């Protein structure tokens, strides 16, 4: 099954497990969310077949039941369209789309073209699994109050993490840092890199990564400090999985607290 953007993760044993959804109830709920939101998906087929190049077709979810889902096809796509025919010929078709800064991906199995009086649709089996990926740098979460996440470099420099995404984090630099902290501050210029920073987000999420400073912003007088926007540099697969897990859990807990 092609997972083009995540080959590095997929090549590792269990590399995609943290992103996999196998619960039938959760899969159905996600499909209905796509249907109700009229979310544009793309059906993709790789180049590993008798044709040439990669074929892609935009669709939306028309209907969902326990065993099947139906995609509606753009009215301008004819039944003889080359991309449509190429998709119907293969068994490696993948649907890809985004909801709330989250990329969803699943296999479209046993796909059949059904002609109706007014339009044609694509009918396929309900996916047995889905993959849910946070889009890089697209969504940030603020750690919950009970955690005190920090980024530490060397023995003396320890800065509080204000928020985090898959692509980076924001750190808080006090207006008057302690003398030991001030003595260990790296150059605070855009593009400067802090090497092998130990980031601790909670008891289960700790990793080392290089941080590149993107920008520094003054906070209000009451906060009294600077917000340092940093990019993760060459984060490895284990770090990406840990970040994804932390972001997902933080989002879920925030929703539970909001509804309590």
Can you offer a commentary on this structure?
With 260 residues, the chain is an alpha+beta fold. It has 2 domains: 131 residues, Electron Transport, Fmn-binding Protein, Chain A (Pnp Oxidase, Chain A, Roll), CATH 2.30.110.10; 110 residues, Thrombin, subunit H (Beta Barrel), CATH 2.40.10. The chain has 5 helices and 15 strands.
Number of helices: 5
As residue ranges, the low-confidence spans are: 1-13, 47-53
Task: Tell me the name of the CATH homologous superfamily of the largest domain.
Answer: Electron Transport, Fmn-binding Protein, Chain A
CATH class annotation of the largest domain: Mainly Beta
Count of β-strands: 15
CA-based shape:
elongated
Q: In the CATH scheme, what's the topology name of the largest domain? A: Pnp Oxidase, Chain A
* Assembly classification: single chain
